[in-house]
Amino acid sequence: MSPQIGLALRRLRKKHNLTQKDLANGICSQAEISKIESGTHSPTVELLYALSRRLQVPITAFLNNSSHVDSLRLTDDRLLTAFQNQEYEMIYREAQEKVNTISFDEELRSLYSYYLHISAYRMNKIDYRTCIVELQLLAEKYSTIYFSPKMLVRLKSAIATLYYEKKNYLYGLKVYEELINLKFDSDELLVEKIRILYNTSKVLIDLRRPTDALKYINDGILQCLRFKDMSLLGQLYYQKAYALELMEEELSLIKDSYQKAYLLFDILQMNEYKQILLTGKGQFIEQ
Questions:
Q1: Using one digit for the tens of pLDDT, what is the confidence trace for 127-141?
Q2: Which of 7, 135, 149, 282 is surrounded by the most beta carbons within 10 Å?
Q3: How many C-beta atoms lie closer than 10 Å to residue 64's C-beta?
Q4: d(Cα 12, Cα 63) in Å, to the nearest integer?
């Protein structure tokens, strides 16, 4: 593990613009830092913890342990499924316990903190403004350790969603625009970007700014086609057709987008979306 720890230490040190001497000050000798970074010396857990505190990262940032990453993903998937099933009480109790007991693993603690706040809001234990403040504080803290940009996207998306639900569209739009400007340098995050583009267009539609919305919609469609991800393609085409309606564009263009949305909903067996389209926009569909 020494070379891996050394590479991680060097990367994090340079990110904070620290020299080896700066990093070592009050913790260990500069020579020891040099040996760790070169992979010739294995640090103790105590030393790693002290270095992680100075660099403001969880100790797991040095380890890149695949089993730890898998464990995080499994925990997230389990809690997300429970949240979708509205099992808020169970999530709240578990998250509250974990937040109070986890000390070393900052990433896992942040994940549980996220679920603690959103479950508390859904249970009316806190109002939406308090939830937003707590999520913002968590996002600010998380941005300093920057271990997983996906979590930062998750936190800011939750904030934007709360603003949208409460019809504070301008505040929500500002958060979504911040998200769009983040670097999406992995396939997983690029899928998140498509969702953000779609949600941003929804806000702009509600603000009656269809021309601006169409720019995000077209970008989202392009990203879907480029990365062969169809999960939101039907919704994007539906949104495009509606924006074109608001812009009073040619009927053929509007029908084309609604038709594409219908075909995608049909292919993906998204029957609820098909029914919504047929009920509200059936006149545009040729079956």
A1: 999 999 999 999 888
A2: 135
A3: 13
A4: 13
